[in-house]
């Protein structure tokens, strides 16, 4: 006779991060990436989507002390944008279940038959995965959840990949802008920004130089070994080309203004108070970080912003998250924001509220967002230098704040352990945004 193993859970309010894992982010320019110039070319291959997902799931379980106890996980959520195109693989919820015993035979899988799903919101897919998992804990449908983000993008040429990624835009209307649709969309923003004197190309070069300086201290970063000075980011390096084909916008974007096309994964285990009891932790355990709030906002894919100097959707998500947590922007000690392009990082300062409208340039000019600054932003290099495996980014952002709060960042560790942090993860050209406020325990 069949007997259900389902337990009846109670609605909860507090959600905690127990821990997680970030894989190295790799791709062109990374010493770990196997291309034709690599000594292992022809002998070894880069990791597949399935292999990165399996590594992420397994290491997340190990790092949180749940190896051998995985059956306590009630819910699994995967953030991924384009697995079906870059890797010919969709249906990644069940893939995450199988990841626990990937490559093994005759081994019982304790995640079997647990609810698992994939969520997609372009570059905000990772943030949505964490939000979906957190909401399950708050609703009482789960006590412990695993959220994973993963992406492989190096399986296609730059132009084919650019076409795939353009599906995060209004494809029918915006694909024709350029072979590289998203760089062109942000160059279009930059043209408007420069014309309205919101900030300058020198300011975006400062953002890039900061990102590379941080990434050089981060062994997981895609651009860990690639150094870029401010002068090189400002166009004095011959390799720092303006590559767009659209002559109207070409002058407004350099290679160093762009995030990396990376492969990688990140995972996090979340628990409510009942979940903590199941794994022998109390809410004041020093290994934990509390998610004080998590909020999402979306806007119409078919409309352009009335003011390209403002990330309206990201601002809405950030304001919601801050309000829910009863936190002011000035209370924050660290932030991870979505710097898909240098332009975006500056606009994210204003969306998050750490700079007033028109004054993001002051923060980057004064060094306020450097590792040693008043409010360090993207301490591990951000999307520009750490890398941007699209589905993993939102999870990685949250884990980066967690790691700073637990003193785990080594060479790029902030001098003072942060008490409050925020993340702001964006999908498309500011069409989906997920923001969190995190508090150290």
From TrEMBL:
Keywords annotated in UniProt: Acyltransferase, Lipid transport, Lipid-binding, Transferase, Transport
InterPro entries per record: Thiolase, Thiolase-like, Thiolase_C_2, Thiolase_CS, Thiolase_N
Gene Ontology biological-process entries: lipid transport
Transmembrane segments: none
Acyltransferase among keywords: yes
Class of enzymatic activity (EC top level): transferase
UniProt xrefs under PANTHER family: ACETYL-COA C-ACETYLTRANSFERASE, NON-SPECIFIC LIPID-TRANSFER PROTEIN-LIKE 2
Protein name per its UniProtKB record: propanoyl-CoA C-acyltransferase
Native species: Leishmania braziliensis
Taxonomy of the source species: Eukaryota, Discoba, Euglenozoa, Kinetoplastea, Metakinetoplastina
């Amino acid at each position: 006779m069949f007997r259900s193993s389902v337990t009846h859970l109670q609605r909860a309010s507090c959600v905690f991060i127990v821990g997680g894992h970030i894989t190295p982010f790799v791709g062109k320019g990374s010493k770990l990436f196997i291309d034709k110039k690599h000594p292992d070319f022809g002998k070894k291959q880069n990791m597949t989507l399935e292999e990165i997902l399996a590594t992420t799931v397994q290491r997340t379980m190990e790092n949180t002390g749940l190896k051998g106890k995985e059956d306590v996980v009630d819910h699994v959520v995967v953030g991924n944008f384009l697995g079906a195109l870059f890797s010919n693989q969709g249906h990644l919820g069940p893939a995450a279940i199988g990841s626990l015993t990937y490559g093994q035979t005759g081994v019982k899988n304790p995640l079997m038959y647990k609810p698992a799903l994939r969520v997609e919101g372009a570059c905000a897919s990772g943030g949505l995965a964490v939000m979906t998992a957190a909401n399950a804990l708050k609703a009482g449908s789960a006590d412990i959840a695993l959220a994973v983000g993963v992406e492989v993008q190096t399986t296609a040429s730059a132009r084919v990949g650019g076409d795939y990624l353009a599906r995060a835009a209004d494809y029918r209307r915006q694909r024709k802008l350029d072979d590289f649709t998203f760089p062109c969309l942000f160059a279009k923003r930059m043209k408007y920004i420069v014309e309205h004197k919101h900030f300058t190309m020198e300011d975006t070069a400062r953002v890039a130089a900061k990102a590379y300086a941080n990434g050089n201290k981060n062994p997981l970063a895609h651009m860990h070994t690639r150094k870029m000075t401010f002068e090189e980011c400002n166009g004095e390096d011959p390799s720092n080309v303006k590559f767009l084909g659209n002559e109207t916008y070409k002058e407004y974007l350099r290679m160093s203004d762009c995030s990396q096309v990376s492969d990688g994964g990140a995972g996090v285990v979340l628990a409510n108070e009942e979940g903590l009891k199941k794994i022998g932790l109390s809410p004041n355990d020093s290994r934990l970080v509390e998610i004080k709030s998590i909020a999402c906002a979306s806007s119409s894919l078919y409309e352009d912003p009335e003011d390209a100097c403002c990330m309206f959707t990201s601002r809405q998500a950030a304001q919601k998250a801050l309000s829910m947590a009863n936190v002011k922007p000035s209370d924050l000690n660290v932030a991870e924001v979505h710097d898909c392009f240098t332009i975006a990082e500056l606009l994210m300062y204003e969306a998050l509220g750490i700079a007033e409208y028109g004054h993001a340039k002051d923060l980057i000019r004064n060094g306020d967002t450097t590792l040693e600054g008043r409010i360090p932003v993207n301490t591990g290099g951000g999307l520009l230098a750490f890398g941007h495996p699209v589905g993993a980014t939102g999870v990685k952002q949250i884990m980066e704040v967690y790691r700073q709060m637990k003193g785990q960042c080594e060479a790029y560790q902030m001098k003072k352990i942060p008490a409050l942090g925020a993340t702001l993860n964006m999908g498309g050209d500011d069409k989906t945004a997920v923001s969190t406020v995190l508090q150290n325990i």
